[in-house]
């Protein structure tokens, strides 16, 4: 008896390892489909517009200064200066939409941005007698293809004409509007209002260039992931939309020095581009990720199902052939294949429901025939359906998945130990 049980356990362990081979192949298929999905998203981004990061508005000034060397020869030196707004108020309204390519889709957004910036023009008086070659209002945009029709700016009641390019070598992508210094100097403070229509994908970030920056962002998206160096001071998220507010000052941002390193001295703009606040519109129903997470529990499902069969063998003294174990294992593996294929067309939740029902019915009918008992088949149907329900709960409860999984394993192990605590593993059952 002991030798038979030992051999059966070894056979079952070998079958579990054997069934894991097609499950690993299915997991590889999920990764392949997920990578293809990401490639399609990148293709859509290349044909429309990608992630957006905005730096501005700010004033950019260049002037030439004559110099003489020791030999008395004259030459000119190009100087670059920046003026950041003393106050920046930004209101962004994002509306999302989808683009499809085959069965794959990408989530894009259109943002309507109302921007108000106030500049202290007293700092420009030092350049009144300089040979100014450029004086522009600049907006740096990460992907300029996303700039929509209707974007405009106004200063002192007059409309400014945006032109392509920022005219800054280190921050080339964007728009600029030429300004007149004498017009700016007529007021100590000048306000600029900008309406910027922008299209992008996933990420939307704003550089807090003001000495004081206030940003309010709303979107019809229930799964925001706030990104950048600053978290919102307040946020509200529900099942349909979110609203977030940020507030920063120049003590916390150090934008002036970062601009200087980028434009004037070192030419390193990486820190400037990273100094931002914003949101990443995360896809909360990534069925490939959920399907991949489901396959991580395949070993647990196999062990639980095979353990229940082995328990039936030793309690009922009904022999179950290894081939029957193998068919049951293959049915469990096919569940994951059905899950990923159906989720591409109907979404994860419906795909899981259909796959779980099909797998549960198939296994229960097979078990009923295998044990020659419709009652045992019905009991198994309830048990496997409960197992698939618990697995779905594990996938949904991201924060408590480990705790729930550990509790499930402990409960099942406890049940098996209680049922077999009086079993004589060397011979027959004893009272």
Automatic annotation (TrEMBL):
InterPro entries: Uncharacterised_IM_CreD. Keywords: Membrane, Transmembrane, Transmembrane helix. The chain crosses the membrane at residues 297-315, 322-340, 346-367, 379-396, 402-420. NCBIfam families: PRK11715.1-1. This is Cell envelope integrity protein CreD. It comes from Pseudoalteromonas qingdaonensis. The gene is creD.
């Amino acid at each position: 008896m002991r030798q038979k049980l030992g051999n059966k356990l070894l056979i079952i362990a070998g079958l579990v390892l054997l069934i894991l081979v097609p499950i690993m192949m299915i997991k590889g298929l999920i990764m392949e489909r997920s990578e293809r999905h990401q490639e399609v998203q990148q293709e859509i981004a290349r044909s429309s517009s990608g992630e957006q990061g905005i730096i501005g508005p700010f004033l950019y000034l260049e002037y030439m200064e004559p110099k003489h060397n020791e030999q008395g020869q004259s030459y000119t030196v190009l100087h670059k200066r920046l003026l950041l707004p003393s106050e920046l108020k930004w209101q962004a309204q994002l509306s999302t939409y989808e683009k499809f390519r085959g069965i794959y889709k990408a989530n894009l957004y259109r943002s309507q941005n109302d921007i108000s910036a106030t500049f202290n023009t007293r700092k420009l008086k030092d350049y009144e007698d300089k040979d100014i070659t450029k004086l522009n209002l600049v907006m740096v945009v990460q992907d300029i293809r996303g700039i929509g029709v209707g974007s405009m700016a106004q200063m002192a009641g007059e409309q400014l004409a945006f032109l392509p390019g920022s005219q800054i070598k280190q921050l080339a992508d964007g728009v600029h509007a030429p300004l007149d210094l004498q017009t700016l100097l007529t007021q100590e403070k000048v306000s600029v209002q900008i309406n910027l229509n922008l299209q992008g994908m996933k990420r939307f970030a704003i550089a807090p260039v003001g000495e004081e920056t206030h940003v309010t962002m709303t979107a019809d998206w229930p799964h925001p992931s706030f990104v950048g160096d600053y978290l919102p001071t307040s946020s509200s998220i529900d099942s349909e939309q979110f609203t977030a507010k940020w507030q920063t000052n120049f003590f916390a941002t150090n934008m002036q020095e970062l601009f200087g390193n980028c434009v004037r001295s070192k030419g390193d703009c990486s820190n400037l581009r990273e100094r931002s606040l914003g949101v990443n519109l995360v896809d909360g129903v990534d069925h490939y990720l959920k399907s991949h997470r489901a396959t991580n529990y395949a070993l647990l499902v196999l062990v639980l199902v095979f353990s229940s069969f082995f328990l039936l063998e030793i309690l009922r003294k009904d022999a179950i052939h290894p081939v029957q174990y193998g068919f049951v294992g293959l049915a469990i593996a096919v569940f994951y294949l059905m899950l990923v294929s159906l989720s591409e067309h109907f979404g994860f939740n419906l795909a899981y429901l259909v796959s779980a029902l099909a797998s549960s019915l198939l296994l229960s009918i097979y078990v009923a025939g295998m044990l020659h008992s419709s009652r045992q088949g019905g009991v198994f149907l309830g048990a496997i359906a409960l197992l698939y329900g618990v697995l779905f709960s594990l996938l949904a409860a991201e924060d408590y998945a480990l705790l729930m999984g550990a509790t499930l394993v402990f409960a099942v192990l406890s049940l098996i130990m209680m049922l077999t605590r009086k079993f004589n593993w060397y011979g027959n059952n004893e009272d």
